[in-house]
Amino acid sequence: MLNWQKINDVSAMKNKDKIIESILWSIALPGFSQIINGRLLKGFLFIGLEIVINVMANFNEIIRYSFIGEIESAILHANYQWLMFYPCLYFFAMWDALKDAGGGKKAYSYLPFVSSAFLVTVGIMYSTQAKVFGIILGPVWFPMLFVIPGLVIGFSLKIILNKKQGK
Length: 167
Description:
Helix content is 74%, strand content 2%. By secondary structure, the chain is mainly α.
């Protein structure tokens, strides 16, 4: 006799694993998850956009300067007009990866991604001026600080809106 509960539990675990795998590959490089999930055109489009924005913003160079502690060099090499596109592409690709893997079906599931993209973009705008404990963190480290508040705000809004609608 089949144990349907066990079959459903295994299926749910496989789906959860697929969702986690998709998000992690998308964090590694926007587009990888879409390719894994069989969305080749979309995956290559995300990878192409990532490469264009990365190159035009000098992103790899400013990451390198940031990691070796040369924040002033990172600031000087950053093309902020292009760099400000990166958070939106990055978080949208993660959201899309989540959806392609079968997640994000609950109402307002997109809000943590949207609010993080918005706040990280704001972090980029202020990264040359804002100081944390008297230190300018630059265009890599300072915007990263905004991911956590973005997620908190997004998940909070999701909970509030779902409660308001009785979901």
